[in-house]
Amino acid sequence: RNRHERMCSLVPLVLCLFVWCYVAFSYVALYMWLDPWSLSGIAHIIVFHVLTVLLNYNYLKAVYVDPGRVPQHWRPAEWSDADAAQRKTAELDPAKLRSRNYDFTEVRFCRKCDAWKPPRCHHCSECERCPWINNCVGYFNHKYFLLFLTYILIESLYMMVVYMFCLVAVSEEMSTTVPTGWHSLQIIIIIFQFLTIIPTIIGCSCLYYYQLQMVFENITGIETFNRDLEERKMRKLGKVYQFPFDRGTSRNCNEVFGPKPQMWLCPTEPLGDGLSYKGFEMEV
Description:
Number of strands: 2
Number of helices: 9
Radius of gyration: 25 Å
Largest sheet: 2 strands, antiparallel
């Protein structure tokens, strides 16, 4: 999809929520409650705007970056035309399709696309795009999507804490002075912000937990389904199944966030081409 089509769906709604939260927080917390020119006011302004920039940058990158696709006419470099034709015939053998176990590390043939696909690549018969970014989450925008969730949770929790102090301060001021319309307006804005932030924290926390769990295991949603099937088969044989791409939590995180932990929270591009992965004996 082009960038104009990406802005359909829920993307404009998300951006409007960002604008509302930004304006409301700037007015109530940074202008009415804090002295913008005090040391604490300047510190809060810097923290809030840094988080806001990182959140919006990663969100827009998750929306606009192509998640990745297999190059046209791709196949392993070491295959000749004769090898590819022979392997294609074997792949399309109905007996093999019915009998074989699922091998995560093999190069497979997609009958729908009439093309070879590398390990960990799947054809999406009905594209279920993430409605919040109106884009698929793939190899090249996975980190941006995770950082978007990270910063929206950090900023939401930060705003919740600040709003609690604002609410206490406004309540104390109303108890010692004559309440005015400005006091009521601040309380209304804070309540509406709570109604926006609390569901955001709950929803994003559930999604974030699910996403991090897959990162720690170096697995995708589709692979989870196939792995569970293989685990059940091995359990019946009295064996323990080892997912071939699970290299341990630390290395798995490096696969997604990069090799340098100090750069994990920075919006950097992923390494590699998304066509080959470490974690099994033979590189493909």
